[in-house]
């Protein structure tokens, strides 16, 4: 099939490259000329395992093209995917300017019947608006059918997710459009759920809100575990064995970040408000997450007292491992809070330093060497569970730090391993291990 993709951000690029890999002819377009030029050389503007080799292969085969000229992309496409950004407005609602502009541009450029398939996360009713915009600029005989086809790709495993998703959602009022999309996705052998457009739009928000709720729930239980002496890992394992609960998304820690959960939960609260429903549960999920993201700083003050003049090694900047993305990452809030408390911060991350520097500037130091980060540090805070951090021998904390205190926001180490070392260790929802010399005069 001849496919166009509007937007070469995370979702658009993965979608375009993977559809080309399936054998389709794909042309991706973006308003950012420099991004298109980079992509034409086979280089990816985003860090995603496996993406660049697949991008290069498909460029070479001629199945994949990039253009900044929307007319080139849309004029004879059979299916056009809209995968442009829906950033957050000040009030938490989703900004649909890019989506509406893409719809307008599609209407201006198409020269035959087309299926417009929305991958961007959009509030309920947006696909109706997309159809209205296209029709307003392109009167019949050209037909544009709209389909809501939300994506569930996770950063860091997006290619695997594309080819092995749990389900594909197709929301449309057009039977022929649903049949065509079904044909497109059939080789993936992923269950396809056909539904109406509005339900499909809601499925995306509800999925992300539910997963966010699982995380905040387990973090609340972790807080109670800490106070009662229970261990959150034992508890999560025990409840996860119940098939109705399931074992996933029960990892307690310093909360969720990234480009989806924080934005989509807020947008759903707003969406509910628009129809006079106060989404109390989701508001609490967001509140718990905000508290969780800066928890390491409160814990640090409990152990060390004042943080003034203390050197802190912040281990991990990305919102999760295997990505360079720092959007809504807990690390950023932790770094700012540490600076407000007059601590000095040196941050380690194997991939996200460039992106973090754009937000935090030079107020903190950065290093790509984990051991250098630990040198002479009073405290180490683990914000991302990178393998490099998980596999770091504990002896190195002892060798490099002044008197090792670790606040582990991602529960990277087993308590049994920690107990074999002279390290003070505070994690999330598990008993703390504090060495006597640290305890003197401190509130634990
Ligand atoms: C998420 C959804 O999983 C995906 O379906 C959607 O398309 C986009 O949003 P992503 O943001 O890439 O994907 O990351 P994900 O792996 O879901 O993790 C999100 C955040 O939750 C991370 O900060 C992670 O550290 C945190 N998390 C996840 C937890 O704190 N505990 C968990 O048990 C799972």
UniProtKB/TrEMBL annotation:
Residues 313-415 form the UDP-glucose/GDP-mannose dehydrogenase C-terminal domain. It catalyses: UDP-alpha-D-glucose + 2 NAD(+) + H2O = UDP-alpha-D-glucuronate + 2 NADH + 3 H(+). The keyword Oxidoreductase applies. Pathway: Nucleotide-sugar biosynthesis; UDP-alpha-D-glucuronate biosynthesis; UDP-alpha-D-glucuronate from UDP-alpha-D-glucose: step 1/1. Signal peptide: none annotated. Pfam families: UDPG_MGDP_dh, UDPG_MGDP_dh_C, UDPG_MGDP_dh_N. It is an enzyme of class 1 (oxidoreductase). Keywords: NAD, Oxidoreductase. Its EC number is 1.1.1.22. GO terms for molecular function: oxidoreductase activity. PANTHER family: UDP-GLUCOSE 6-DEHYDROGENASE TUAD, UDP-GLUCOSE 6-DEHYDROGENASE YWQF. Belongs to the UDP-glucose/GDP-mannose dehydrogenase family. This is UDP-glucose 6-dehydrogenase.
């Amino acid at each position: 099939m001849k496919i166009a993709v509007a937007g070469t951000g995370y979702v658009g690029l993965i979608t375009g490259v993977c559809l080309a890999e399936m054998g389709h002819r794909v042309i991706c377009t973006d308003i950012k000329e420099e991004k298109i030029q980079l992509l034409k050389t086979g280089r990816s503007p985003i860090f995603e395992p496996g993406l660049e080799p697949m991008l290069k292969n498909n460029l070479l085969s001629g199945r994949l093209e990039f253009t900044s000229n929307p007319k080139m992309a849309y004029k004879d496409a059979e299916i056009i995917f809209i995968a442009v950004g829906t950033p957050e407005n000040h009030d938490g609602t989703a900004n649909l300017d890019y989506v509406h502009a893409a719809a307008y541009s599609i209407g201006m450029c198409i020269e035959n019947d087309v299926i417009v398939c929305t991958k961007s996360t959009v509030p309920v009713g947006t696909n109706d608006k997309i159809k209205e915009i296209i029709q307003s600029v392109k009167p019949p005989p050209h037909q544009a059918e709209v389909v809501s086809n939300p994506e569930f790709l996770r950063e860091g495993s997006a290619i695997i997710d594309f080819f092995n998703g749990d389900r594909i959602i197709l929301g449309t009022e057009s039977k022929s459009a649903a049949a065509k999309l079904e044909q497109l996705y059939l080789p993936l052998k992923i269950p396809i759920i056909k539904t109406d457009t509005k339900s499909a739009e809601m499925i995306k928000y509800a999925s992300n809100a539910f997963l966010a709720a699982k995380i905040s729930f387990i973090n609340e239980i972790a807080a109670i575990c800490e106070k009662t002496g229970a261990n959150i890992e034992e508890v999560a394992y025990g409840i996860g064995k119940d098939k109705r609960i399931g074992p996933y998304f029960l990892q307690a820690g310093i909360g969720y970040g990234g480009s989806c959960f924080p934005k989509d939960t807020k947008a759903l609260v707003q969406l509910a408000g628009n129809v006079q429903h106060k989404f109390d549960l989701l508001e609490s999920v967001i509140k718990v997450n905000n508290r969780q993201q800066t928890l390491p700083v409160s814990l640090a003050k409990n152990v060390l007292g004042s943080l003034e003049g203390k050197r802190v090694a912040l281990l991990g900047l990305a919102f999760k491992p295997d990505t360079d993305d720092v959007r809504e990452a807990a690390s950023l809030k932790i770094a700012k809070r540490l600076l407000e408390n007059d601590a000095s911060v040196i941050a380690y991350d194997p991939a996200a330093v460039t992106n973090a520097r754009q937000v935090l500037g030079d107020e903190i130091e950065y290093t790509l060497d984990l051991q250098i980060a630990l040198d002479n540090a009073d405290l180490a805070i683990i914000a991302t569970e990178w393998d490099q951090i998980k596999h770091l021998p504990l002896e190195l904390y002892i060798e490099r730090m002044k008197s090792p205190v670790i606040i582990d926001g991602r529960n990277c180490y087993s308590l049994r391993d920690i107990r074999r070392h002279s390290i003070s260790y505070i994690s999330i929802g598990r008993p703390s291990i504090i060495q006597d010399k640290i305890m003197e005069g401190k509130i634990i």
